[in-house]
Amino acid sequence: MDTTLAVQQHIQQTIRQDFTDTETILTVPPGQDEGVWKYEQLRQFCLELNGLAIKLQTECTPLTCSQMTATEQWIFLCAAHKTPQGCPAIDYTRHTLDGAACLLNSNKYFPSRVSIKDSSVAKLGSVCRRVYRIFSHAYYHHRHIFDESENETYLCRRFTTFVIRYNLMSRDNLIVPIMDDASNTSNNNSVDQFSIAKNPSESAPKMIACFQDLPEGVIPD
To answer: Rounded to two decimals, what is the model's pTM?
Structure first.
């Protein structure tokens, strides 16, 4: 697939044919560059996540969800501010999707959708960790919305399969028990490299900063 939109069109076509067939949707076509494949898959995930964000707006407000949380064990801080700070979950969701779009559309890091440098592909894991937190919040705090969306899209199941298959996220951070092999790890003590505070008490929340894109679309690794 050597045209600009060929990979995107292939992915979207397989989703339309059967959105529950995650294996077919995620299988790299013969001869396809894997870096481009991962990039286009992540673009598609972010596109579809906007649908979940719209559903969340019906009840996820600054009053009902004043922080971006996932159970009482995880609090995510937003760095779309001068210093990382608590941010209403719905604003955090918007900031995260905006930041992902900024990076994935960056001419500096992704000037071509036919060939992508390894150094740019390496940035995809950071995007995956951040957008996954939208699934986490929806699952633990808006379960009926999550279930409705998942029944219509299989999006979290597909995303979980994707990040495991391509080693884009640590299993320790996959806290939504959507699959048998993606076990619920909310009780473990691991945090990613963006932790800004950690209480040794297991009952204390883990606070993780979400670094939003810099003007050039950079997400710190």
So the answer is: 0.80
